[in-house]
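User: Continuing from earlier, I have the next pair ready.

Assistant: Great, send them over.

User: Here they are, in order.

Assistant: Folding the first of the pair now:
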Amino acid sequence: LFSALPSIANVFVVFVLFILIFAIVGVGFLKGGLGACAGPLFDALPPERASLVMDPVPFEQLSAEQRGWGAVNGSAFAGTTSKAVCEWMGAEWTQRVAVGFDNVLVGSVALFGLSTTEGWVTMMQAGVESRGIDMQPARGAAPAMALLFILFILIGSFFFLNAFVGVTIDNFSRSKEGAVLATTDQREWIRLTDVVLNARPIRMARAPRAPWRRRAFVLVHSGWFEPFIMGCILLNAVVMAASFFGMPAGWAAILDATNTVFTLIFTAEAAFKLAALGWGYWHSAWNIFDFLVVTFSVAGILVDLVGGVSIGPVASVVRTVRVGRVIRLVKQARSLRLLFRALLVTLPGLANIASLLGLFIVIYGILGQQLFAHVRFGSALNEDANFRGFGQSLMTLVRVATGEDWNTLQADLAVGSDCSPNPQWDDPVPRGCGDVATSLTFFTTFTLTVSFVLLNLVVGLLLEAFSNEGVGSKLSAEQIEQFSEAWAELDPDATGFVPASRLGDLLQRLPVPMGFGRHNEVSDAAVRRRTLQLRITTWKAAAGAGSSGASAKQGGQVQFADVMLGLGRWLVEHGGKAAPGAADTDAEKSEAKRRASVSLPEGHPAVKRLRELRRQAAQSTGSRRLEWDVRHAMAAGTISDAYRTFRLRWRLSTAMDTVQRAWEARQRAIAAGQLLSQEALARAVAERIDEEDEDEDWDEHESSGDSGPVEEDEADDEVDASDAGNSKGSLVDWRGSATEF
């Protein structure tokens, strides 16, 4: 808020200049022309006397009869104005508006009130009916004056008020992101972090083993079940809206019976879902909300059976809760669900702004109680809106914050006539005097601070939340939801971790530009290249964690938020554009290097929130964050694959050499007349191969040592065991070939 003060001051200076221009024009046309003859006496005047007020003539031109119309016999009036004739007849000349255009200062105050659009139609009507200084207004006397007020509303209200909104929102967004000096990519990265940290993995429901529960599971997951329930919700809303005051008893009985039927349907739905999902039913906030609505609906039926009329308001409250069932429609519409989620995301920020707003209202409430507690009542200052007590002061300021009739209230608090300069504190009816400067300063600063700035922070917070859902964001809320759904296929228990080796499968499931898409065939090299670009931290699974399996040991695990942030970072650095399976060209690589880095300082709020999320994930699962990331794991896997390929080729080459030597030995035996039998030849080849395998295993055992992480060795041994099996099968084939040979 304080960081926005220089920008707000600049806008305010330009705003004041435009107000002065319009005030000068307004004084030129409307000074002294916004009064009128009014009051009970004027309303009772005959038409001929009222016409004299409308079209006055000099006193000398009046007839003898007309000269007797004065309130005091033998009196006269000076000038030819409606005000002089009105007061001569004993009527009251009043101002039609609280603040007019008698001078530039007063006109500026009036225009400031108009900038809030409060009472501008009344002011425009008074200007259009103005006929000059101290003249009685007439309908449509100066229609061109409407252009002056419309032009000011367009410039002073629509433009400058929105300028205040824009400056406030811009500074609020920058200060909230901590990105006053950040680059565009860094601000985009901060917004992505805010969206990602609010996402959570989705728990996939699993079919139970009990036959009766399995049948319930199939029912609630059938394609027609949810549409049927949504249709019942819509029909139930129509039935609840069909009641009206004075409806016949028969119609009321039909509505009650229909509501009872719908309540039974929704109760059966909750029962089926409880049977199908078990404790997993309570993992969904929508299910909890639905269960509460069903509970209140059943309670409403029981209240009606007991006697709802005798219970009083309790029955109405219980029945009203049933309307909340319509909110479930948000769950089925993706666009509504995203907007609803955006509103939920803003709740913490709205609470902070509401606290600051309440603090300012309390401060001004105390000031108003001290300054205006004894000012006499007027048109707007009355029993309902005053500063006689602290609570009443707060309620009055809440009304003023919405812009409701605040300028009239300010004029009542500036009264300086027909009042007591020294009122008593215990006066039952206030009769003290106000002050123009005090009331004007009080309401001007309150309107600028609360209405122009603080309330616009709420608008800024909502706009920021909705902008994160929009198309302009590199990673929209819809893509976040798609990511959560794809993640749930690999992590059905919503542990938040999957093996790092499954990252390729995840990228294949994600749509473009996050991944490659389910229907796009890409090469393993493209998947590996994209995975290396994500720079995702790996985690060590907790001891005894069965969810990861042996595959988690091959490079560790990756966490939900880390993967999503890695994808977000990649989208920011590459502009969110990538052809499925396409390799990065040199131009794209150089462009990515030229883009501003999205790295943030360690003390940045986004970094702190991410660190806190990782700490919570480590505590909840017992996992430990490793020092290396997916790039290291992929590099180690590449080296391991190359080594296993080399060793397999070496074994095949050794087998070929052995067969070749056996062939040469057999040829020499034939030449020497010492031909061995086929069985003896095959046995010799097999013994030779076994000796070479033992020598190789001993060399590997001697060279392995204790270096490297234990998880890497265990994973390598498991993979080597499978490769050894495949290689041994190949050697058996070679033995068979040697035997046949």
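And the other member of the pair:
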Amino acid sequence: MHSSSIVQNSSTVPDSFPSSPEQNYSHHRYPNSSISSSPTTELDSMSENLSSLSSSDSMTSLPISHGQHLMEYGAGGMKAARTKKMANGQQPAPRKVYTSGTNAPSQKHAKDLRQQRSAGDLHGASTLQHRAILSEGSQKVAPSKKNPSSDTSLNTSGNASSNTSGSSASSTCYLLPSLFGKSRPSTVVFSLQKSNHTDYEREFGRPLQKVVIKASKRKDEGLYYCMPPTAVEFNVIKNAFKRAGFKRTKKFSQLNMLWGKHMKYDEYSKLNENQRCNHFPGSWALGRKDNLHKHLTVMRRRHGKSFDFFPHSYLLPEDKSLLQQEMDKHPQNLYILKPRASSCGRGIKVVQTMDQIKRKECIIQRYIADPFLIDGKKWDLRIYVVVTSMDPLVIYMFDDGLTRFATEKYNKKKLNNRFIHLTNYSINKNSKKFDRNEDEAHDMAGSKWSIKALKRYFQQEGIDDRRLWKKVSELVVKTMIAVESNINSLVKRHVLTKNNPCYEVFGFDVLVDAHLKPWIIEVNVSPSLSSSSPLDKQIKGHLITQTFHMLGCTPYKRRDYKDHQEQERRDRLLGLAPSSNLHSLRSTLYKRTMFELQRSKRLDFLTDDDRDVIMHFEDEHSRRGNFERIFPTKKLE
């Protein structure tokens, strides 16, 4: 087994940390792994095997020169060129193993040797000699895979030992320890500013663990993120990963965190429990306007006024006759036409009669004709919501967001003016009256405010908005409950890991009427994260950084994980696994909801899996930053 390439600063490691990285990664995460955790034991085993080989009959029956050659160069010495010399009775000259000193090869000599190897003149060179002569300008032998003691190891000073080639390309990250010490893994620190160790500890209020990952071990132990070619590459995403010490990769098996568009269902089965994906399978139950309408309509029929926060809607052509009856009964009403699946305000317009509807397939909503106006203009809210789990359902709402204004004063008579009736930034930015905010410190100016600025406006005007924000939270929770069963069934069907690796950042668009009642307009499964202004950069930068930090990315050794998976596969084939039915395993793990767990007064009734779920979400809640967990809450209604 390789010795760890992770170098820790022991002066900053709390008492709850394991004494070595192997304990943190291999022993904790893969307790049943068959890999030896002691390099010395493995080395002793190799020595015994070599001794038995030298004393065996097969060894002594060989010519002395042959036996000496095999002992000197190992199994790799039996190359074609060497075998040919031995067949002719020639004794190959012992090769030199270069270490530090004057006899080490120069850069020119190393270059000549590389050229000879490429021409086929060095086929007989041993693995150790290859590494010595092919390293450019190196004066030291690259560490052998069979000798962990020659590799960089953990030391008390936190610095690498003598073999530090490639240290300039090493990566550094900080790990935040769990509230529960060694029983839970540490997670990667994400921060809006790249700071030193002391600043990080002051920011998060806990001792941190500094980790240096060597370049030679980065592929196995490094932190990687993936943004597929189809993904929109927002700077706030890439900068958040870069500050945390992540490198970009194209390999799905190598990534720690994935940010992209929705994957195909069969691709979710490839995710392991150490990876994170930014979409749930089936979250289009929220993202498409027609799907959202169907789910909320079903809940309104079941629960009545409790779901009276969604404008009455009609799907065409299915509900054409019902819409016609509605228009005949209330000819003065206005309606807003939207394509079933679109974004950025495309195809949206205000209509009043059936003759104005030219699309065959669309959704028609009752127009909220009495919106709350500020300076005579219509506005809406972009609420950012992060769902970290669907089973159990866990919802967080960010404490800031955007208040987006129309660029012309409200007038119900001018139905064709999109700058009056629509608040989408993608539409109003093309208006001559659009006022761009160029200073993040003045977030109550221009055509786009922050939600914190809106709250200050309500205070200045003497408006009690506490009931409004409570209703907004209820609106978000009820909307997620409406689609929970649909999304959760797809998660259980296509995500094969015990711990769900999916999460999602949603953008809820909410309109407030003159009575301070919030109405949900639509939900965005891929809200825009472009930094078109300093205000956008500030809000979205905090949003993404704190989302990644709250999720808790755990470093892991990919090689150990593959070995662990292989061991589990063998156990299943031999009938040693506790359960080969994944769905029965999940039904055991999640047989109780978070509410039921919270009601439990006696902890001795909790299973180990129950405790693991509780500890996971308590750790997550401790990293929430400016998020508020709105479901589940302490007060059960």
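Worth noting for the second one:
Residues 1-79, 96-105, 118-168, 580-587 have pLDDT under 50 and may be disordered. The first strand starts at residue 6 and ends at 8.
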